[in-house]
Amino acid sequence: MDFEVSDQLLGTFLPIIVYWAYSGIYMMMGSFENYRLHSMKDEDEKNLVSKGAVIRGVLLQQTVQAIVATILFKVAGDSGEAAALHNASIFILARQFLTAMVALDTWQYFMHRYMHQNKFLYKHIHSLHHRLVVPYAYGALYNHPLEGLILDTIGGAISFLISGMSPRASIFFFSFATIKTVDDHCGLWLPGNLFHIFFKNNTAYHDVHHQLHGSKYNFSQPFFVTWDRILGTYMPYSLGKRPGGGFEVRPAKACKDD
User: Fold this and answer.
1) Which residues of 226-235 are buried (b: 16+ CB within 10 A; e: fewer)?
2) Which helix (H) or strand (E) holds 249?
3) Element housing 93 (H / E)
4) From residue 115, how far is each of 3, 112, 178, 207 by CA, in Å?
5) Which residues contact 132 (CB under 8 A, 6 or more apart)?
6) Tell me: the pLDDT tens digits for 174-194?
7) pLDDT digits over 109-146, tens only?
């Protein structure tokens, strides 16, 4: 008897598998001190949450994410989806991907920024993510469960529905978005990293936001920096050598002094 895995099942669970697999690759590279944005000592001393708690928090968010994705695929339906994807041109798929990227960026920018501006939401919800002063790969989705639901899960559902992509196309989009999010939190500036080459919103850009003087800037995630530039929350930075090896993200002084 042949065993077939549905597109809905892959769309639900493959991004979770990709998250831990890609994070695992970065964790094996964690000792590459010459490419780190922060030292391993800083990672151990500055972060305000244990790695065990981070793992439990991420697994909880992914459980909620899987439940919502299952419901979403049931509601969206799957009749003719495989044929639709097969017949769709590369231009249609590219348009759907770009639409989903813009929709997700827009949702996450405004929700993320509001969680910083609203003192109650920041104190009780978003501050959990900022306990990771020195981000690392598998901490990318460490959030309060409510934040994970609002920013990531609902944001993903909105981008899926607005783009009109099929469950099969969503497998690739959400796996790509997952890899991008993990990369933004990896804490490593590796030569030849394509995300650093093609995206202004990258590991160094997001590292600025995790620093104390950058918490009012660089809200955009996970793809573009457009909303930061339009609404005046863009903080430029330079990348220099860190004493003792590795790199250091240096926000522009004009913004740092605001």
Assistant:
1) bbbeeeebbb
2) strand 247-251
3) helix 90-117
4) 44, 5, 22, 18
5) 47, 48, 49, 54, 139, 142, 185, 210
6) 999 999 999 999 999 999 999
7) 999 999 999 999 999 999 999 999 999 999 999 999 99
